[in-house]
Amino acid sequence: MNEPITPEDAQRSASVFEPLTRSLRELIDVTIRSQVNAADVRKARALIDEARELLGARLDSNPFGVRFTTDGQALPWGNVAIGMRNALAPPLHVRRDEEAGRATADLVLGAAYEGPPGQVHGGMCALILDHLLGATAHRRDEPAFTGTLTLRYVAPTPLGRLRAESWVEREDGGKTFAAGHLLDEKGRITVQAEGIFIRPKRPA
Amino acid sequence: MNEPITPEDAQRSASVFEPLTRSLRELIDVTIRSQVNAADVRKARALIDEARELLGARLDSNPFGVRFTTDGQALPWGNVAIGMRNALAPPLHVRRDEEAGRATADLVLGAAYEGPPGQVHGGMCALILDHLLGATAHRRDEPAFTGTLTLRYVAPTPLGRLRAESWVEREDGGKTFAAGHLLDEKGRITVQAEGIFIRPKRPA
């Protein structure tokens, strides 16, 4: 378990790691699309290894988990969907309206999220919708886990600008029945989802 | 549409890009777990930006798609699940037994695939199972698209060594009804999946 950190230290840490991770996302993209010669690829690799050495000089042996600030703010910085320090994450910026039980995220997915040529991988659509439907069930300090998730792919999802929307259908104790969809740039539904999300009972 | 490349050129390209992407996967991992000071993070970012400049000097404006060698081998190098040049991909190494209609993949997921602390993100499990179930439906030059996918999360999936297995339940024209599951290191099922995968009719 990690000690809570002050909001100021969290802010300071974010101010150096956020730009690092943003640069890394761009590097992932150009690694896929690059057409430079072998010598330049090898030079790039040497630079990457040098960066890895620098950052790896002092490592947490655990994955990031979810840390908290002393004022109770959650820092899910390693999360594969929303993590500020995780270059795999688009990252999703989830806007929640807890009163209305809704969540929304606008995102842009590039070459790194491809499945069929020019399209978002069906499994990536599933990841986004899983996270977004789950977000309607989250409560402060009470994460919700996916129980079941059903996806219906009604049209190809083109790479580019997308929106994901989710809402609560009904709740039953610690279970949230949520639904949602993914929309392409023109507002057409490409994938529909429904799922049951569970908040485990906490020890008394 | 890209021109087919010779198997020799594909081999040469793989021999420089595969080590590059492997180094990049390690860099993504240490970016999440690093505890070095701000000055070293900034130095690492400068190296990453330098690598990005080098690789970005000549870029394909399109995502990678699926390219083919002159002898018909598919190169899905940008794919988010299996792409050799995609650092987001674990990558999955899918072993297919086409006769038996089965597919299997062993994989190790580290800090970059985290959802709940210490566990694989539910959406990441969905991505892996979507790809693996879909693999049972693929035919040479006839990719299969996900129609529907249902996931049942029966236990947490710990980060670490995992196995995914899938099989064909039945086929009906261009539709493949597939099922599968994800197993943890001890062989316990953590997620069950079933789905319908569709091979579009080709123009005559």
**If strands are numbered along the chain, what order do they take across the biggest sheet of chain A?**
3-4-6-7-8-5
Strand portion of chain A: 25-35%
Q: What is the helix fraction of residues of chain A, given as a range? A: 25-40%
Q: Looking at the structure, what is the overall shape of chain A?
A: flat
- Please report the distance between the alpha carbons of the first and last residues of chain A: 20 Å
What oligomeric state best describes the polypeptide chains here? Answer: homodimer
* Rounded mean pLDDT score of chain A: 94
The chain pair with the largest interface is:
A-B, 86 and 86 residues
How many separate helices of chain A? 3
Q: Pairing-aware structural class of the strands and helices of chain A?
A: alpha+beta
Extract low-pLDDT stretches of chain A: none
Taking Cα atoms only, what radius of gyration of chain A do you get, to the nearest Å? 19 Å
| Element string of chain A (H = helix, E = strand) | HHEEEEHEEEE
> How many β-strand runs of chain A?
8
The main sheet of chain A comes to: 6 strands, antiparallel
Feature tags:
homodimer, 29% helix, cell membrane (chains A, B), 204 residues, lipid metabolism (chains A, B), 6-stranded antiparallel β-sheet, alpha+beta
Description:
Chains A, B: Its EC number is 3.1.2.2. Chains A, B: One of its GO terms (molecular function) is hydrolase activity. Chains A, B: It is a peripheral membrane protein. Chain A is α+β, with helices and mostly antiparallel strands and about 200 residues long. Chain A contains three helices and eight strands. In chain A, the strands form two sheets. A six-stranded antiparallel β-sheet of chain A has the order 3-4-6-7-8-5, with helices on one face. Chain A has a two-stranded antiparallel sheet with strand order 1-2. Chain A is flat and about 60 Å long. The model of chain A has no long low-confidence stretch (mean pLDDT about 95). Chains A and B meet through helix 1, helix 2, helix 3 and strand 5 of A and helix 1, helix 2, helix 3 and strand 5 of B. Strand 5 of chain A pairs antiparallel with strand 5 of chain B.
